[in-house]
Amino acid sequence: LYFSATEDNDVKLWKEDTSNVHSAVATITDRLDVGWTIAHFSSASSQKWLLTTVNGDIDGLTEMLLGAYLEFEVNPEIGISETEDFNTEVNTSVGGIEYAIKTGNPKTTIDMNFSSVSNTFKTNLQSMESIVQNHHKFLYSEDGASGPIHYVRLAKPIDFKEVSYNRYSCSIKLVEQLS
C-alpha cells in the first residue's frame, strides 16, 4: 500500500470466495506512514479483492499492489551500484552555447550481482522475470523487510551464467519508477 499522507486507521484486505461472499485475508493495524507499507499474508487466490477501513476514512491511499513475495536466498555481492539519470537533454545552439531541457524527474538505476545462487533460486528469479518482464512494476526492498523500498521495473533480462554444478551467477538491473 502506498500512502501520500499518514493514516491512523486500520485497514482490512478481503478476497471474494464466491459471488458477494468475502473472507478476510489480512488486517494492517500499524500506523501507516507516508510511503510504502508492506503486509505479508498467506497465499490466497481470487479475481476480486476488497480493501476496507476498520474505523474511519482513508484519504492518503494512492496505490495498492498484490503479488508474491520473493526473498533473496543470499545477499547480492558488495558493490551494488546506483546511478542517476537526470532526465535532462543538453543541446548546443548554432552559436555554440549549451542549453538544457529538463525532460522529466531523475530516475535511479540499481545494478546488483550474485556470484553463487542455487538452481531453485534461479528458477524462482526466472519465474518472476517471466511474469513482470519489463512491463510490470514491483517493489524491491534493500534489506528485504522495511526499506528503503524502491518502486522498480526490470531494465533488462536477468543474465545467468553457470559457475559450477547447479550454481549460477546472475546480474539484475532495476530502474526506479516515478509513479
The tally of strands reads 14
Terminal residue distance:
13 Å
The portion of residues forming beta strands comes to: over 45%
Helix/strand structural class? mainly beta
Jot down its keywords.
single chain, 179 residues, 8% helix, mainly beta
How would you describe this protein?
Strand 8 and strand 9 form a beta hairpin. The two termini are 13 Å apart. The radius of gyration is 20 Å and the shape is globular. The longest helix has 14 residues. 8% of the residues lie in helices and 45% in strands. Strands 7, 10, 11, 12, 13 and 14 form a six-stranded antiparallel beta sheet that branches. Strands 4-1-6 form a three-stranded antiparallel beta sheet, with no helix packed on it. A three-stranded antiparallel beta sheet has the order 3-2-5, with no helix packed on it. With 179 residues, it is mainly beta. It contains one helix and 14 strands; from the N terminus they run E-E-E-E-E-E-E-E-E-E-H-E-E-E-E. The mean pLDDT is 89.
